[in-house]
């Protein structure tokens, strides 16, 4: 919320509309799940077949998608929402499963005795619970920007709490303190620019000759392509300023985005 407070009213309104659209898409998936008994049964069986570790991965991917939307909107308020990062990709079946899991957890918080009911009753109970949300979100366009954003932040908090309880695992699980390679998809998308003046590549300490194509990182630092590609195969930070590029590790990505939001908020208050 501190980072969101840095946005001017027009950008805050733009973000709230994007978030409202995301809520509606997820709500449509839940309505489909609860409207078709066969789809609900298959999704519930798939969810129950997953280990706690795999459930935590689904929630972490969902959280990463939401954090990516949030940080992108704060950094680029009027730009179109970005595609989810590679680490957050999931099949439709898995999206249905994580939405159902989050719904089950939310209802359990409101009614701890809910899970005591026979599983054959769950769909009807959940449908009644979600019907109120449908009515609320049908009026979301008329509610305040703050209300939509508070709902979004609350969903992020709920996901984060679940990831903490379940123990999020990823490609880098157990590698705390070790360097992680930058995401291959991010490296491929790095732009090539032409050097306008004689600059030094801090990796090889050789001059980047004027007119030569070199790689530009998001922090605007330039490097020889061969140097930076070798560097990013082992670590995801800029050699000059330590700016962190995305990785394919779920936990690291979540931490990176949360740190970025914290920096935005702290800069606003100082």
From TrEMBL:
Keywords: Metal-binding, Zinc, Zinc-finger
Gene3D superfamilies: Zinc/RING finger domain, C3HC4 (zinc finger)
GO molecular function, one term: ubiquitin protein ligase activity
Catalysed reactions, as listed in the record: S-ubiquitinyl-[E2 ubiquitin-conjugating enzyme]-L-cysteine + [acceptor protein]-L-lysine = [E2 ubiquitin-conjugating enzyme]-L-cysteine + N(6)-ubiquitinyl-[acceptor protein]-L-lysine
Record carries keyword Transferase: no
Native source organism of the sequence: Salvia splendens
Protein's name according to its UniProt entry: RING-type E3 ubiquitin transferase
Keyword Repeat: no
EC number per UniProt: 2.3.2.27
GO biological process assignments: protein ubiquitination
InterPro entries with a match to the protein in the record: Znf_RING, Znf_RING/FYVE/PHD
Cellular component GO terms, alphabetical: cytoplasm
The RING-type domain, residue ranges: 201-242
CDD domains linked: RING-H2_PA-TM-RING
């Amino acid at each position: 919320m501190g980072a969101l407070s840095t946005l001017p009213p027009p950008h805050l309104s733009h973000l709230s509309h994007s978030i409202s659209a995301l809520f509606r898409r997820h709500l449509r998936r839940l309505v489909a799940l609860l409207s078709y008994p066969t789809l609900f049964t298959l999704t519930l069986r798939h969810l129950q077949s997953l280990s706690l570790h795999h459930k935590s991965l689904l929630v972490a991917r969902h959280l990463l998608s939401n954090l990516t939307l949030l940080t992108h909107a704060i950094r680029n308020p009027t730009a179109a929402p970005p595609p989810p990062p590679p680490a957050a990709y999931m099949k439709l079946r898995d999206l249905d499963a994580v939405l159902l899991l989050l719904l089950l957890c939310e209802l359990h918080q409101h009614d701890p005795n809910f899970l005591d009911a026979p599983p054959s009753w769950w769909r009807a109970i959940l449908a009644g619970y979600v019907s109120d949300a449908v009515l609320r979100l049908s009026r979301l366009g008329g509610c305040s920007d703050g209300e939509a954003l508070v709902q979004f932040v609350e969903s992020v908090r709920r996901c984060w709490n679940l990831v903490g309880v379940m123990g999020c695992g990823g490609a880098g699980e157990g590698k705390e303190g070790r360097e992680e390679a930058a995401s291959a998809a991010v490296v491929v998308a790095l732009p090539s620019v032409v050097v306008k003046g004689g600059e030094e590549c801090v990796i090889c300490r050789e001059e980047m000759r004027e007119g030569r194509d070199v790689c530009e990182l998001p922090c605007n630092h330039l490097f020889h392509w061969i140097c930076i590609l070798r560097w990013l195969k082992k670590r995801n930070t800029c050699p000059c300023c330590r700016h962190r590029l995305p990785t394919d590790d779920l936990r690291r990505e979540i931490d990176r985005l949360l740190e970025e939001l914290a920096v935005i908020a702290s800069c606003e208050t100082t």
